[in-house]
Specification:
Keywords: Membrane, Transmembrane, Transmembrane helix. Pfam families: Abhydrolase_6 (PF12697). This is AB hydrolase-1 domain-containing protein. The chain contains 6 helices and 6 strands. The protein is α/β, with parallel strands linked by helices and about 200 residues long. A 6-stranded parallel beta sheet has the order 2-1-3-4-5-6, covered by helices on one side. The longest helix is centred in the middle third of the chain and has 13 residues. The two termini are about 20 Å apart. About 40% of the residues are buried.
């Protein structure tokens, strides 16, 4: 079974024109039609992990990649493979300076719609897309910004494919390479003309 986890401010529809269109799509709290009320990224990963079947492949993009990694930590017996698009083990402090993270959260609180629209353009995405729930989306992002996977990833012994765009200015090439260096069994593929949004 293949499961997908989208990126922040998007929903399952990003997978519709990809090879994973027929997968089972997990939606983050506050995004799409997700019924989840929890916004702690660790608890989200546990909830998702409990719902998947054994011998699964989990495909995650950006924050979804981090959730997928945590799922593999909590439920190693259920996951055979990870496919991670634009991952980073540490968003604030590696992919982005902490001051930028704090400024972004402030902008979201002041003008959520404008800030989300700007963020999507930074990702390389320009289509019209429904907004997530403001409160849940911000709380989830805060949880993600406090996440550090550098000591966790070396304990993930599943085959892992990492895909990243050379022009990614969100989680950046450095984030993907750090993941690549930490996973015991991983490969990396770089697309020279792609941004954070790869699909």
């Amino acid at each position: 079974m293949v499961y997908t986890i989208h990126g922040w401010s998007f929903n399952k529809d990003i997978w519709m024109k990809t090879p994973f269109a027929n997968a089972f799509h997990l939606e983050l709290p506050g995004h799409g039609n997700s019924p989840l009320q929890i916004t702690n990224i660790y608890e989200v990963a546990k909830k998702f992990g409990k719902s998947i079947k054994s011998s699964s492949t989990v495909v995650g993009w950006s924050i979804g990649a981090s959730v997928a990694i945590l799922m593999a930590v909590y439920f190693p017996e259920k996951i055979n493979k990870l496919i991670l698009y634009s991952p980073t083990p540490l968003f604030c402090g590696m992919s982005q300076p902490e001051v930028i993270c704090k400024r972004f959260l402030k902008k979201l609180s002041r003008d959520f719609e404008t800030t989300v629209t700007w963020f999507r353009k930074e990702c390389g995405f320009s289509d019209i897309y429904p907004l997530p729930d403001k409160d849940k989306a911000i709380k989830l992002l805060e949880s993600y910004m406090n996440l550090d996977l550098r000591n966790i990833i070396p304990e993930v012994f599943v085959k892992t494919d990492i895909i990243v765009g050379l022009k990614d200015e969100v989680t950046k090439l450095s984030g993907a390479f750090c993941c690549f260096s930490l996973f015991p069994f991983s490969s990396i593929k770089i697309f020279p003309d792609k941004f954070h949004f790869l699909f």
